[in-house]
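Troubleshooting: if your tokenizer reports a length mismatch, compare your output against this known-good record of 349 residues.
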Amino acid sequence: MTGTDPTRLISLLEALTAIPGLAGHEDAIAHALAERLAPLAADVHLDALGNVIAPLRGASDGPRVAVLAHMDTVGFAVKSVSAEGLLRLVPVGGVNLKALPGAAVRVGEVPGVIGVRSQHQARPGDETVREDDLYVQVAPEAVAQISVTAPVTYAPHSLRLGEGLFAAPYLDDRAGCAALVALAERLADVPLPCQVTLIGTVQEETTCAGALSALRAVAPDAALFVDGTLSYDTPETRGQGMVTLGGGPVLTSFLYVSGLNGWHAHPGLRAHLLRVAAEAGIPAQQDAIRGLISDARTATWLGIPSAVIGLPLRSKHAPLEMMHLDDLIAAVDLLAAVLLRPLPALIRG
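Known-good structure output:
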């Protein structure tokens, strides 16, 4: 078992973030992830919804543990098409509206740009971007290639800023998918005290139906979710929380959006992760978040103890998200350390 090579990790992130995978349209990324996991797992298959399910080799007859990351992304679907190459859109998932004007996108394989009024023609209220204002310009001669409902995603692009900062579209949650691959490489043919299944899920950004279906089929005793989370280390977020890029993965205790749409970590499982991190000298942060949810809520519905290992991000759901590579490496380190130890008893009461 060896550590994670940062250079190889960057190449993996660049490859995974360049593959389209709008929620409900995940086939390309699912096949790419399955291909990378196939040499490292006992078996890899896609279920009827498109989830990638890969049990690892080296498993014992011990408890069953699932490690999940979602493959899908936010984006848009084409609502209407004009002969001039102007496309109206409907958002799919929680797109970051204020970051969209002028962004490069692709409609299938057709390049386009999200329209924005020229500053010289600015009108009062332009600073507020509304869903109804969104449109994409493509080449008029490409219109014949585009159908209503076609998926629209951010154009591939990546930047490395210094030694640790990395920016690309869809690090939420292609960084989690990269963690699955790196973890599989780390644990390949290593004897394990538990039965580990890696799962790439679909539709997290819209329904969480993929995780629900996969967890029901795998029926693990515990589920660990690797997903993008918030940081509070930019001028507009300082003072709102303690999480920073480079501070380590985040062991979240609580997520909530509205109504009954919330999740609580299993306290015994989260305490175990914190204990393992401390014993192994792996940096870890903690948070409780209002305004964010994840596939982990489906584990609660099924009565499966769960924990979220968050990867701190800046500019979440914008055309370029930013992370620190050390956080991703530490997340893989933590997952490996946890899976190489016996799972504690998780029965409460």
